[in-house]
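Lab notes, practical 5.
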Amino acid sequence: MIDAPWSLATARAEEAGEALAESLAHGLTNGRPVILIGYSHGARVVFFCVKKLAQMQRYDLVYRAVLLGPNVTRHGPSWAQMASASASPCAVVYSSGFSAPNSSAITSAMTYHFWWMSRL
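Output from the prediction step:
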């Protein structure tokens, strides 16, 4: 199967994000807020970490999240959860020529607490 490595990396990024959220919630930073930055699948890790923290109602652990070329879904509620768990606006950075299937994620998330940037 051609997309098996991609699917595996995507699933593992989600698991890693949830594991990072658990680590942060259990005192990895001694309660100090952090800035999370991720690129591509790393951005997916950050996305699911912050989403999990929102589900845990731990709104004090992430100061800002920066997603560079995120590989995330387009569903609005996920973006709303992520935005609620960050103390300041999240930043999503993507190419001005972004035309991947997930480009609708950009449109659906623009109504939430995010900064949008292109051409960096």
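Observations recorded by the TA: Residues 17 and 45 are 4 Å apart (CA to CA). DSSP finds four helices and four strands in the chain.
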